[in-house]
Design a protein that fits this description.
Layout: H1 3-12, H2 15-20, H3 23-36, E1 43-49, H4 54-58, H5 63-73, E2 84-90, E3 95-100, H6 102-125, H7 129-147, E4 163-164
Parallel strand pairs: 1-2, 1-4
Antiparallel strand pairs: 2-3
Amino acid sequence: MSITRIARHLVQHNWRAKQIFTPKVLDRIEQAIRQSETTHSGQVRFVVEGALDGRPLFRNQPARGRALDVFSHLRIWDTAHNNGVLIYLLLADRDVEIVADRGIDAKVGADGWEKICRAMEAEFRAGQFEGGVLAGIDAVSRELAKHFPPGGPHTNELPDQPVVM
């Protein structure tokens, strides 16, 4: 467990996420998700967590482990075609993780998701948080459209609203 990591998480906490992801930015992200889901039959969720606190922090939980917990907690795995995708940003670690349900993950694979994460992280390093998230949603949606094109009436199985934790 790194003292530097603990300090970064305790100092940043969630104020930074709320400062960057204002209500207007969150609205634009929600609209992007809603629009993207017209191009495929998958489900996309975006979650930003400013910093870990309590048990996850002191257990030194990595961003990937936390993303898996959030994926489960939000029941993103509970879609008809197993094609839910979580884009998770742990701001204090500047780490993006994509967790995809088995239906889409088997088609895109870890390397495909990793490429999208690294592109988003590059945008974030340049201070382009909104642009990075929108580009990530677009990239995830292209993968979903390739493997799960829209068909029949669209059922929105998961909320489009971004979550700030």
